[in-house]
Fold these 2 entries.
Entry 1:
Amino acid sequence: MNTTNSWFRDKILLGMTPAQYVKSNLTLPNLVAAIILCISIPVMVYRIMYGLGPATNLSDNYPWGLWIGFDILVGIALAAPGLTLGTAVHLFGMEKYRPFVRPAILSSLLGYIFAVFALMFDLGRYYRIPYLLVWSWGFTSILFLIGWHFFLYINISVVEFSPVVFEWLNLKKWKDFFSKLTIWATVFGVIIAAGHQSALGALYLAARTKLYPLWYSPLLPIFFLLSAVFAGISMVIVESALSHRFFADRVKGFDHEAFDRLTIGLGKAAASALFLYFILKVFDLVRSEDWVYLNSGYGYLYLVEVLGFVLFPAMLFLYGVRNQRVTLVRFAGLITVLGVILNRLDVSIVAFNWFLPASQKYYPRWSEVMLTLGVITLLILSYRFIVNRMAVLHEPAESEAQQEPEALAKKAVNF
Amino acid sequence: MTIDRREFLKRTAALAGVTLLGGTSIAHAADRKDFSRYFTNNTANERDWKIWEEKKNVHLGGEPFGILVDTTFCIGCRRCEWACNDWNKNPNQPVEKFEASVNDKNSVFNSIRRTHAGNFTVVNRFEEKDRDPVYVKKQCMHCVDPACLNACFVDAFRKTPEGPVIYNPNVCIGCRYCMVSCPFGIPAYEYFSAFQPQVTKCTMCYDRVVEGRMPACVENCPAGALTFGSRSELIKTAHKRIDNNPGRYVNHVYGEHEVGGTSWLYLSPVAFNQIGFQTNVGTTPVPDVTKAYLFGVKLFEMVSAWPLVFGAYYAVTKLRDHRKEHYPDGTPKDSGKKS
């Protein structure tokens, strides 16, 4: 009976019959995801059919809103795990962090793909996006650099991740071929990622008079790059904690103590990057003599961002590392991620065109928020889909590929 | 203005969508009551770009043009707005309605306006203590070294040798970074066009200038507030006016040095920041800032690439040696390919 469909059943349905599979997916998280998608997919259609004007609160004063500020600036910063972990393991030879590499590369790959997917709704003429690559080149533009780097980086991430896919498909020759390419892809990826992470900050160099002085700095590219580094590390800390919790059955012979030790090691790295960032921020404030601006609404927000979401998590990391308190390190990681989100939204929306009266400022429309939520949901679903099927959270022993599908099915988490 | 049936239906549908899904979102900002932001049928871009394509190898001789705005002469009749809309096929009204704004109680002058998809220029009124209000025309400044041109990642802008900065709607992807980077906040976007939105801004009537005519707004100014001519001559004229009329002007020609110079030049009786000008834009062209950064990145990518590549090579070799040493029969991982 299962001759024709057995591949599909084993690989996609995790060894279940379609009926079993559907039944196993009737869970509360899936219900929430379905509700979000039921709203956000029509919003996507509405944006395409009627245009940006009806679908968003964007205006001539605020050409960039939530879809750039969150989906691109935040999304790309938080998609840096592949950059940081790939470099640490493949280039610096820190082999003990190898267990983090595959999930890190997967989150980078999906992060970039979905950031670009979201970008398609923000571009006025998304269907012309190939022009950027083959038709009309604006060499002087920082955005040109970013566009090309996104394109290249997605390709690099595909190469880096492809061994896992070929492993899943039992294509050994292909897997070996792409495994050999990994280190070169990583080298290329580091160069490219450092380039475009800083370029995202450099975009705002041109908006010198539009950005509130506390946020504008000639160091913006360095701030964006450095914060992407600690965002990447913190994302690994947060993500790995979550996925080891939710996908616990997927990780064979999981050594909790070793995992906690590694998490603390990551915390150390994050603390160093955070302190360096904080020192540069203070240096920049002193250099620009902008402290007169601190005593204002924007100034307080700036202080919250720099003290509450940079210095505070840096201290927490330090304390957690010194006292081997892994929960504290994870909490600090979460605060750092929230801080990076706050920083990107401050630069792109809150501090942008700050001199306009409140009535002309930009607030995201509900449809913009829903589309963003929908994209995040799709990202999480894709991540779960892949993790449930491929060896992401651990590198398998040779024999696992031939494992019984039933055993795999038991490990899967509601999908 | 005439609109054809198809366009009318399209716009009605868009507005129906607006009312259905987002009544509140339009109302929350005064600026959003400005209906010129709903306009979607720009033809000026395409027309000017065609001329540029034909003419790019045979330009008019001589110096780039500029326009001098003497705000002390401006009477706020808004004929320039009318003429601009008329020439560029933007939504328009009878000229009398524009002229009436000066005396209307409920006039457009009660709020400070900006350019939108359907208007390339606006006149704003700035009330001053103990003196007559100052009327200031606002439009694209046509920078000598334009930020928008430099920001565009598909190279859609051109600085013509005649002075106007023009835009090619046929390659624009709609990223709107030109709008972010413009220090004067001029370019607008046709947000209400679902499929073919364009960036819109003053074209300095490139199509008229190449025919030896002056821009529509200059031709229609009844008060002598606008002067068209070669930019360098206009700068001299402006300084002469300042010198010959003590007390009439502040001693500054806005646009002479701002962001590296602009084609539009302004004279004012009061400090420029009192009449809506950004006075902190500096004299460095915006592109210079990003050029320095791009140079740095290229240097980084080229210089740092080599140590990284060799480092990687070294790492690979070391790993191979390490494996040979410890697992002479092949590691469990790559035992398959070695046998």
Note: Strands of chain B lie at 65-70, 122-126, 134-138, 157-159, 165-167, 188-189, 199-200, 226-230, 264-267.
Entry 2:
Amino acid sequence: MATYTMKEAKPAPSTSKGLLFWLRENLFSDIKNSLLTLVGLYFLYTIIPPLLNWMIFDATWSGTKDEVVKEGARWIFIVEKFDQFIYGFYPESLHWRPNLVALICIAFLLSMKFVKNINIKIALILLFPVVCFVLISGGGFGLEVVETEKWGGLMLTVLVAAVGIIASFPIGIILALGRQSHMPIVKTLCVGFIEFVRGVPLITILFMASVVLPLFFSDGIDFDKLLRALIGITLFQAAYIAEVVRGGLQAIPRGQYEASESLGLSYWQGMILVILPQALKISIPNLVGSFISLFKDTTLVLIIGLFDILAMVTLTNSDTNWLGYEVEGYVFVTMIYWVICFTMSQYSKSIERKFNTEH
Amino acid sequence: MNNSQLPPSANGFLNNPQNRAVIFQVLALMFVVFLAFYFANNMFDNVEKRGITTGFSFLDDVAGFGISQTLIEYDDAGSTYYDVFIVGLLNTLLVSIIGIFFASVLGLLIGVGRLSSNYLISRLSLVYIETFRNIPILLQILFWYNVVLAALPSPRKSFSYLDSVFLNNRGLLLPEPIFESGSSAILIALILAITGVFFLARWSKKRHDLTGEEFPLIKVSIALVLLAPVLVYFISGQPISAEYPHLKGFNFKGGLTIIPELLALMFALSIYTATYIAEAVRAGIEAVPNGQKEAAKSLGLKDHVILTKVVLPQALRVIIPPVINQYLNLVKNSSLATAIGYPEIVTLFSGTTLNQVGQAIEIILMTMAVYLTFSIVISLMLNWVNAKMAIKGR
């Protein structure tokens, strides 16, 4: 009887595994690809080393500005003006108040995740903006009043974005429901508002809010500049939220609407208990996308004379002791925006992946 | 249903959904009308109190300020606010069209690069997209204008290319074409060539439908559109010449100047919008199922036929709507030019004119009307494209 012995398996040929194989497969698979790779490498070579040198190796991190000897970025400017970039002209002795608000925000977000009792949740949601507002603007509870003209920097940027997001949300949902409703007049009004706002640039709405809005009210009512900007941004954002929520509403199968009706729920009960929870859940990625654009759009308030973090670049450079540091200023602000926007967009992508159960 | 068995309250007028709808709508309408009336009333009061004139008669007044870039005849002393409006409108159009062109080219390249089998290229494209779309457009505009372009040398030390193109802190200087008599023939030739291509396309499609024979339409069209004007140019005795910019004293004379504001805006708008277009292109190409390509391959089609006849027609259906939306966004974002003083409609009209005239309501409404018109035109275009590209049911 013939005996068969198992032959030892040969290792895979060296040309089909390992680093070299990966390189050949992904970078040098043919002549065209090799050329592209070389062009790409050359591009990286011209960009990366000078950039790293400028930002890190040749940069000046500490000392005074007269001691700068190196060619690279002079980050001492940012160190020197850091408080202005973050708080604007908010009085230095009161910086603890915005800091406390930041802590409260974190605590609030955590409590939303862990508190299960709905009544406590609602109470917290209602209490949170009031506490933040009182802490920042002062007045009452023995806190010194800080006028809105002194608010600025990253604090103002985040504040404008947060108010825009929170205030526009309910308006946007109502507009979306109005647009989906069967009542012709309500529908026309909502469609008219949404399409009008989406058709014009934010800057014209901000101009409208800052120049025309005061004319709409009798003389007794006075808006300060920040409030006008907030009204403009909220109305603008509401139209975009409305479109996102409408997308979610349309994705809900008709059966859900019919089921909620056959359970005898009224329109509002059906919407709040059945339709909206599902519609909002599937719109979360798009809502986050819309929040990212809003966060980027908050830079526009500098055009109507508010001092957000971007406006601080020009402002800090008008200090006669610190002239000509625009590059460092812009790069610093760019990094802040980039980190925040990129984090939000990765978050939205991760949610999208979590919800995506298709295969 | 027997109504008498229901509790009396359920029979009431208010419980009829139709009645409720009517009442609710009447209330909503009344609220809006009341609000509008209240605002209008206050507005007229305030306008009267502050002594602001109303109406559009200010459009005929002489504006009396200089504008750094005008596409039509404009002089500081005689031109009216109406001229200012037109100048701003044209400048908005100019920067939008240039921006749309470069954003499309860049976006297409990056989007295709994103899908490249070359690891390095696809990573670089990804880095490009993630970098530039997460930085506010206004920040990018200001960066280009205040940092990059401000660092350019003075006219005497400008960067030059072949002694005809110059780049300095006054802008980009190009040779300006001078049209002499007879150059209209070239334009006519171009128009004729384009009309010819249009009819050629219809004819070749019809022939393809009837006989299945292919006609090399794209090659012939490009040749026709390029060759016809060039041929006429030489036949009519080269009526177009160029005027080169030359250094005179401290500045350049002659030639075509692209002001730095326009350059900064162009760079920022095209780089920013290109990231969104690239994502749309990538999503569109990825949306074509692999089975389509495999099926085409198993039919024995060549690679370029698969691309032009199978992949692209299906991908374009997904790509075009979001890209057109991005074009609209680019037009709206061009309004940020006001931050660097590029003379477009918001800068000139909602800025300078508003400061001089003070009629905020009319001026801002006119500016908004311009953008609304743009967005209506673009969404009509989008609807037309969608109808054209919709999958025809059989």
Note: The mean pLDDT of chain A is 87.
